[in-house]
Prior knowledge:
48% of the residues lie in helices and 11% in strands.
Amino acid sequence: xxxxxxxxxxxxxxxxxxxxxxxxxxxxxxxxxxxxxxxxxxxxxxxxxxxxxxxxxxxxxxxxxxxxxxxxxxxxxxxxxxxxxxxxxxxxxxxxxxxxxxxxxxxxxxxxxxxxxxxxxxxxxxxxxxxxxxxxxxxxxxxxxxxxxxxxxxxxxxxxxxxxxxxxxxxxxxxxxxxxxxxxxxxxxxxxxxxxxxxxxxxxxxxxxxxxxxxxxxxxxxxxxxxxxxxxxxxxxxxxxxxxxxxxxxxxxxxxxxxxxxxxxxxxxxxxxxxxxxxxxxxxxxxxxxxxxxxxxxxxxxxxxxxxxxxxxxxxxxxxxxxxxxxxxxxxxxxxxxxxxxxxxxxxxxxxxxxxxxxxxxxxxxxxxxxxxxxxxxxxxxxxxxxxxxxxxxxxxxxxxxxxxxxxxxxxxxxxxxxxxxxxxxxxxxxxxxxxxxxxxxxxxxxxxxxxxxxxxxxxxxxxxxxxxxxxxxxxxxxxxxxxxxxxxxxxxxxxxxxxxxxxxxxxxxxxxxxxxxxxxxxxxxxxxx
Length: 530
């Protein structure tokens, strides 16, 4: 941030306008620094460059994987990034994830909805804009505190301290980071996908995640009844997203192509095929069919040619066609290769459990065709992580010939196993899952889709239990406020977090000594200064 250079330009501008005498160059310069990103497109362009650098770093060394948590409100995203800066000193490799599930469950005007794309499509770009509004405010707040510290150092004549603070401003790292935003299945046809993609990019999204389900039959990735579309349909939507990025000048925009084929046993359409072995024919080759022996038995049936034989795809009463059992992994691999060959940058394979070798088995096959294929992976709360990993350890021990007689595989979730060698090994595998999967299974980005949905519920339950019980007010003080103070949680000064100090600064810029400020000696926020 060229604080001094900008200051001189503004000083010259103000001096050339005599009627602006009440405006100070330093105040303008500070306000400009606090509003570095003027539009969502500025954010999308800046964050796309970050993701591209991170992707190249991962290609060089899988230890450079990235992470994010799903955030359903701007305040949640803001507090997450403030916490990351506080604990790690940098936001490098940490993103935001915008979950369509949480938009449906928490941000729809209809009220809570299942993850079936029934919520207003405009709520998605609105949340992206909200996330970045709060992150930009976090920048303004933190820089504002640095500016106040500079003023105090000047008043005390502490030149060394002033220079130190000036350097901190020049090297300031923003809270604004990439967001991977869920566009579901595009909320309609390719044109609808393009229109929504533009709105999401204009709001600041540098990465769009789109899935190969049917828009009007879309289901949560961890529920049954998923229906996929032929590759040509999905490719058209990938292309629509790319056009949206290019039209808006975000040449580095990232498209994450998600395949739900592992858990999707149905398709709504039989793909168009012009010749044997083309992409439509490959898609149709996985259909569950029966050979037609007697043409006269057909009545309104669809017939396809497979190897010179007439075959009837099995059609359900819902008018959907089903795939053969056991073809999910093969279809995922084909989906991934096809998506990367047609403009996608990253892959997302939705699995039913967090098993590294299962994921790696598919990625290895994709990388035989596209060596630098990389995944975004959902470390989903829909998985029972404790049970899954205890079962994985149990099965591994059985295979190794270890004695497992002390364990009941059917009740491994029990607290009785928490401190056992099996429970401890499972926990260690969970702890290193992201690192190990990044190394073995090509996972560039690890995210948890719905964590802040669950943390909000858990913390509220704890507070309600204590406050409305015998603890009374001590339930809040001991369980919340005392922890906030002792752990230096920024929002313990909630007036400051909401912008009261920023408002006071602006009042002083605008009205000088006549400003009526909120941050005087009678402000109870001063009780948290110690």
